[in-house]
Specification:
- The protein is α/β, with parallel strands linked by helices.
- Helix 7 runs parallel beside helix 8 and helix 15 runs antiparallel to helix 16.
- Helix 8 links the parallel strand 4 and strand 5.
- The chain has one domain: TIM Barrel (Alpha-Beta Barrel), CATH 3.20.20.
- Helices cover 51% and strands 14% of the residues.
- Bound molecules: adenine and zinc ion.
- Adenine binds next to helix 3.
C-alpha cells in the first residue's frame, strides 16, 4: 500500500504535460511557440517564479473548451492517484482563461466534471479553489469572483491568491477577500514564496486566510514560526517547485525540516507537477531521500495534510485510518 496523501497546493493548469499540450493544440488548431514536445520540455529551465509563469501562461493557450479542462483534470487525477492521492484541493486561474476569451462556465464546468470522474474512478475526494492573479488589478479579481459565483457557486469552495508575488502584497486584495468571506468561501493565499515574511503576516492579518501556500520564507523569522505553530496555521509547501524556481538551493537545504522541528503544521504538495519534475508522491520521495525522513515523519506529513484539508470529518477519519494502516505495515511512500 502506498502512503495515502492529500494535495492542497496544485494548480490544475500546472498539471498540463507537454504531450497533452500538443494533443490539445492539434485538436484546437492552436500554435504553440515550440516545434515539439521535446523542445517544450527543454524550455523547463527556470531562473525564478516569473520565468516559469511566462511559459505557464503561454502554454495555457491550448486550453479552450469544457472538454479540454475535463481532460486536463482527469489526466492529473489519474497520475496522482497512482502515487497515493486520496484527497485534492485544486487551484484554477480563471483570469488566465477569460483574458483569452474562454468562457468561464466552460472552465468551471470542465474542471468540476473532471473532479467528479476522479471521485468515481479513483475515490479521490476534492475541493476547488478559485485563485486571483495578484499582478492584475483588484477590480478584475472582484469581477471574476462575482461572475464565478453567479455561474457555479456550488462548485467553488474557496479563494486563493497567486502569480507574480514581489510588488503585489496581499493587502491589495483586502476587499476581494472580505467579499469572498461574505459569500461563505474559505480563504488561502500564496505568501512567502519569493517575498519576505511581511507578506505572510498580511495574508494572515489583513486577508484572514486559514492556510499559507508556500510560506517557506517564514523560516527566517522565529517569532512567525512560533505563531504559525501555536495557531496551527498550515503551510502548503512544494519542495520540488522551490528547487526548480530557485527559492532554495537544493532539497537538502529545504526548510521543511525546520518547520517540522518548530512544530508547524507543514504539508507536502506539488504546485505545478508537469513543470517541476514530479507529482505529490514524487515530492514525498524527494524529501524523504534528501532530508532522511523516517516512515513516521512521512506519516506525520500525510496526517498534517488531512488536518489542514477541508475534507468532511467523516472523510478525515477514513484518511487517518488509511495512514495508520500504512504506518503499521511500513510500506513505500
Ligand atoms: N501559479 C502557478 N504556480 C505558481 C507559483 N508557484 N507561485 C505563484 N503563482 C503560481
Ligand atoms: Zn502555487
Amino acid at each position: 500500500m502506498t502512503l495515502p496523501k492529500t494535495e492542497l497546493h496544485v494548480h490544475i493548469e500546472g498539471t498540463l504535460e507537454p504531450e497533452l499540450a500538443f494533443a490539445l493544440a492539434g485538436r484546437n488548431r492552436v500554435d504553440l511557440p515550440f516545434p515539439d514536445v521535446d523542445a517544450l520540455r527543454a524550455a523547463y529551465d527556470f531562473d525564478d517564479l516569473q520565468s516559469f509563469l511566462d511559459l505557464y501562461y503561454a502554454t495555457m493557450a491550448v486550453l479552450l473548451t469544457e472538454r479540454d479542462f475535463t481532460d486536463l483534470t482527469v489526466a492529473y487525477l489519474e497520475r496522482a492517484a497512482g502515487q497515493g492521492l486520496a484527497h485534492a484541493e485544486v487551484f484554477f486561474d480563471p483570469q488566465a482563461h477569460t483574458s483569452r476569451g474562454v468562457d468561464l462556465a466552460a472552465v468551471i464546468d470542465g474542471i468540476s466534471a473532471g473532479l467528479e470522474i476522479g471521485r468515481e474512478r479513483w475515490g479521490v475526494s476534492s475541493a476547488l479553489i478559485l485563485c486571483f492573479l495578484r499582478n492584475l488589478p483588484a477590480e478584475s479579481a472582484m469581477q471574476t469572483l462575482e461572475q464565478a459565483m453567479s455561474i457555479r457557486a456550488d462548485a467553488i469552495d474557496g479563494v486563493g491568491l497567486d502569480s507574480s508575488e514581489v510588488g503585489f502584497p496581499p493587502s491589495l486584495f483586502d476587499a476581494v477577500f472580505a467579499r469572498a468571506a461574505q459569500l461563505g468561501l474559505r480563504k488561502v493565499a500564496h505568501a512567502g514564496e519569493e517575498a519576505p515574511p511581511a507578506y505572510i503576516l498580511e495574508a494572515l492579518d489583513v486577508l484572514g486566510v486559514e492556510r499559507i501556500d508556500h510560506g517557506v520564507q517564514a523560516v527566517v523569522d522565529p517569532a512567525l514560526l512560533s505563531r504559525l505553530a501555536d495557531e496551527r496555521t498550515p503551510l502548503t509547501v512544494c519542495p520540488l517547485s522551490n528547487v526548480r524556481l530557485r527559492v532554495v538551493d537544493d532539497l537538502a537545504q529545504h526548510p521543511l525540516r525546520a518547520f517540522l522541528e518548530a512544530g508547524v503544521l507543514v504539508t507536502v504538495n506539488s504546485d505545478d507537477p508537469a513543470y517541476f519534475g514530479g507529482y505529490v508522491g514524487d515530492n514525498y520521495v524527494a524529501v524523504r531521500d534528501a532530508l532522511a525522513l523516517t516512515d513516521a515523519q512521512l506519516a506525520h506529513l500525510a496526517r498534517n495534510g488531512v488536518e489542514a484539508s477541508w475534507a468532511t470529518a467523516e472523510r478525515k477519519a477514513e484518511l487517518h485510518a488509511a495512514i495508520d494502516a500504512w504506518e503499521s505495515d511500513g510500506r513505500p511512500a
